[in-house]
Specification:
With 389 residues, this protein is α/β, with parallel strands linked by helices. It contains 15 helices and eight strands. It binds 5,6-dihydroxy-NADP. 5,6-dihydroxy-NADP is lined by residues 39-43, 46, 71-72, 97-101, 103, 141-142, 144-147, 150, 152-154, 165, 182-183, 185-186, 190, 194, 197, 201, 255, 284-285.
């Protein structure tokens, strides 16, 4: 295994009823003004907004709202939140939502405490955070990104057409409340998109060096099987508490840095999806679903043993009479069939991309991963995009 330092400062409260039980007490540690941040309104429809605002009112908090955080949050939205936080002397940012809300809250927490250009100094390039961002707490309503337990914030700069994320340990939420019943109302498409994002994140780590015996790869296989199994259960019964609990915790386990330890990690598909998102605003998990099988057919020969292992250990591919190459390809085919069967897209056209879209410009804007089994060129990324059409 490679050397590593591990830190995860988020305190997690997990289970049905956890918001009622702990939120009031948790807010006591912060000054009286809370910025309540949320998305396009699902929290008002499913009752989470009322529940949280009642608790904050009982705790005597003044609430400042940052509403309408969009999927793929923009830097303009971050600046709006930072201005509001500064003007109102906010002591805690409380995000209620999925990855977009949580990421936006973390970026606001940095921009509100920084006088320079936060985008350039912390997102466009990695920065040194020699100050404390505003504290953030989160109430998670959609499983998938694991943003609740990392310092990552993926932000889109609409002007420069760059979507990028960086993980700063100081941006880890101080606390995260995870009630699986809050995810019951997530529409099926978003649920499977979130589940696939979790699966993608695990694969991006699993398919990278080192490949000799290591605990990260073993945990990754267990997590992948758990995501696949529980997505099927949650599709059949969206209110299956056990399945929703597993999917919620899988996302945390995938993205709380633990399985990254000692691994190079790839994240080439994430880099490609981020730029597709910057140009087309496509759904994150759906974009990843389209890219993964095609990308893997480009790289599998350079990581043949690992792709063989994936096919056998994760998908149960029968090896009888097959070459290693045939086994590896059968695993990628199982992945692609799974994507189709759970109702995610397998072509860019389904995401609204067509021949008019300047795929070359998007391909040229992608960051090249140094952790891939096979280093991509911008030409090969363009080939992949074209094959995905
Ligand atoms: O906006 P509202 O009305 O709340 O609706 C949202 C949104 O339309 C809806 N939703 C959330 N909870 C719901 C619900 N609808 C009904 N009931 C509920 N309980 O779901 C839609 C999508 O929400 P969003 O937060 O955008 O989805 P997701 O959690 O997939 O987050 C995607 C963002 O996270 C970034 C992605 O790039 C993307 O910008 N990521 C962040 C990561 C991180 N910080 O570690 C890693 C990820 O791989 C990812 O890159």
């Amino acid at each position: 295994m490679n050397n590593f330092i591990f830190e995860n400062a988020t305190k997690v409260f997990f289970g049905a009823g956890c918001v009622k039980e702990y939120l009031r007490c948790l807010t006591k540690h912060y000054t009286d003004t809370v910025m309540l941040a949320y998305g396009g309104g699902s929290v008002k429809e499913n009752g989470v907004y009322d529940e949280v605002t009642d608790i904050l009112a009982q705790a005597g908090k003044r609430i400042i709202e940052l509403a309408d955080i969009m999927p793929n949050p923009t830097y303009a939205k971050v600046l709006e939140g930072a201005k509001l936080a500064k003007e109102n002397n906010v002591g805690l940012i409380l995000g209620i939502g999925g990855g977009s809300v949580m990421d936006c809250c973390k970026a606001v927490s940095v921009a509100a405490r920084y006088d320079g250009d936060a985008w350039t100094d912390f997102w466009l390039r990695p920065g040194i955070m020699d100050f404390e961002p505003l504290p953030v707490g989160v109430v998670v309503t959609a499983a998938g990104t694991g943003s609740e337990c990392n310092g990552g914030a993926v932000i889109t700069n609409e002007e420069s057409k760059v979507k990028t994320g960086r993980d700063y340990p100081k941006c880890n939420p101080k606390f995260a409340l995870l009630d699986p019943t809050y995810t019951y109302s997530v529409p099926k498409f978003q649920m499977v998109s979130g589940g696939f994002d979790t699966l993608s994140y695990i694969m991006e780590i699993y398919f990278s060096e080192p490949d000799e015996d290591n605990v990260s790869d073993d945990i990754a296989e267990a997590l992948m099987k758990n995501v696949i199994r529980n997505l099927w259960v949650a599709i059949a019964d969206p209110q299956d508490y056990n399945a929703r609990s597993n999917l919620m915790w899988d996302a945390v386990m995938a993205e709380n840095r633990i399985i990254k330890l000692g691994k190079c990690t790839d994240f080439q598909c994430h880099q490609m999806e981020h730029q597709l998102g910057a140009y087309t605003d496509c759904n994150h998990g759906a974009g990843l679903a389209v890219l993964h099988p095609v990308y893997y057919r480009h790289i599998y020969m350079d990581g043949l043993n690992k792709f063989r292992r994936f096919a056998v250990n994760v998908w149960g591919v029968d090896t009888d009479g097959k070459s290693d190459q045939e086994i590896a390809l059968a695993g990628i085919e199982m992945l692609e069939n799974f994507i189709l069967e759970i109702g995610l897209p397998v072509t860019l056209k389904e995401l609204g991309v067509d021949e008019q879209t300047d795929l070359k410009e998007i391909a040229d804007s992608c960051v090249i991963s140094s952790g891939s089994y096979k280093e991509m060129s911008h030409e090969e990324i363009l080939e992949i995009f074209k094959e995905c059409l």
